[in-house]
Amino acid sequence: MVRYLIRRIGMFLPTLLASSFLIFAFIRLIPGDPAAVMLGDQATPEAVAALRAEMGLEQSLLHQYIIWLTAALTGDLGKSIFFQVPVLDLIVDGLETSVLLALFSMVWIVILGLPIGMLAAARRGSLLDQGLSGLAMFLASVPTFWVGLYLILIFAATLGWLPSSGYPSIFEDGGITNLRYLLLPSLALAAPNAALIIRLTRASMLDVYREDYVRTARAKGLHPLAVVVRHVFRNALLTVVSAIGFTVAALISEAVVTETVFSLPGIGRMVVQSILRRDYPVIQGTILMIVLLYLTINLVVDILYAWLDPRVKLR
Questions:
Q1: Number of structural domains, the chain?
Q2: Which of 73, 101, 128 is the last residue in one of the domains?
Q3: What is the extent of the structural domain holding 185?
Q4: Are residue 116 and residue 230 in the same domain, yes or no?
Q5: Closest CA to 187 of 144, 249, 134
Q6: DSSP codes, 172-221
Q7: Within 13 Å, how many C-alpha atoms sit on residue 143's CB side?
Q8: Phi, psi of 159 (to 5 degrees)
């Protein structure tokens, strides 16, 4: 187990370093000049050139990357060109919304995905199985913004049960009750991902159903529910755990459309706005944090997978 952990952690740092360089390099390929954006259409070429030199944009790409990476290692991701505040402060401001939105969505995914997938597998081949599989296909094919708009129409505009947009921080007036602002957007974001967990849970359990130890458990006279929970679902959970782990990280990057529909002050919406403004420091700093989150969750999932399945340690 220790050797496995050392090998996985050893892959973490080089991957993060390579990702940081690719992020830095590809962002420079975005059309447009941040200096020209800052100064406006009326700026003279001399003023734009002077500002580019002040911002260090005239230096070589490698030189700019080394300076940025050295500062990033100390926690300094630079200063926003547009807002003129540290990038880390902007990320922290949007992190609360995006993280809570992802966690709420994950709760919906687990609540919907696992029980429905288990039920479909337990009643395989029946009309119920076909109906639930059709529901999963429908959820996977419906655009997130469409789900969000209809949730707003039904639960906010028509019934008036929940707010339709915005998110005041839980640290402001209202406290924990402000979480109600995230119920509709988290459900909209969870819909397509829940479909994945439904289908994956069903497929994994059907594979386990064919194993000899399941037939042995049935032959011993175990209750069907005990067979499903103790033998089938437990062993099918390995694949589902991996999918859930990747889904948690993906939710933050997938939240761009949801945050736009519901006007949420999250990281995804901030990245889109920063791209339009050519705000290099905010774009690269935010994407780097998302990549770091991806790699961290990937590492945690691998460790959890190795704990659930000892055979992984031997690979």
A1: 2
A2: 73
A3: 87-314
A4: yes
A5: 144
A6: STTGGGGGGGGHHHHHHHHHHHHHHHHHHHHHHHHHHHTSHHHHHHHHTT
A7: 7
A8: -85, -30
Treating both helix axes as pointing N-terminal to C-terminal, what angle do 267-277 and 280-308 enclose, rounded to 10 degrees? 150
**Whole-number Å distance between alpha carbons of 237 and 83:** 46
Q: Which uninterrupted H or E stretch holds 249?
A: helix 234-261
Which region, left, alpha or beta, applies to residue 279 given φ > 0 means left and ψ of -120 to 50 means alpha?
A: beta
Residue 159 has what DSSP assignment? S
| Token couple for 158 | 């028509």
How many helices, marked H, and strands, marked E, lie in the chain?
Answer: 13, 0
Of the candidates 43, 73, 103, which is a domain's last residue? Answer: 73
How many angstroms separate the most distant Cα atoms in the chain?
Answer: 85
Please write the tens of the pLDDT for every residue from 20-51: 888 888 777 766 666 666 666 666 777 777 76
What number of other Cβ atoms are within 10 A of residue 311's Cβ? Answer: 8
Q: How far apart are CA 288 and CA 17, in angstroms?
A: 10
Of 208, 212, 210, 214, residue with least CA distance to 227 = 214
Give domain status of residue 161, yes or no: yes
pLDDT less than 70: residues of the chain: 1-2, 4-5, 30-43, 51, 54-58, 174, 229-231, 245, 249, 252-253, 305-315
CA distance linking residue 82 with residue 45, whole number of Å: 20
- CATH code (residue 182): 1.10.3720.10
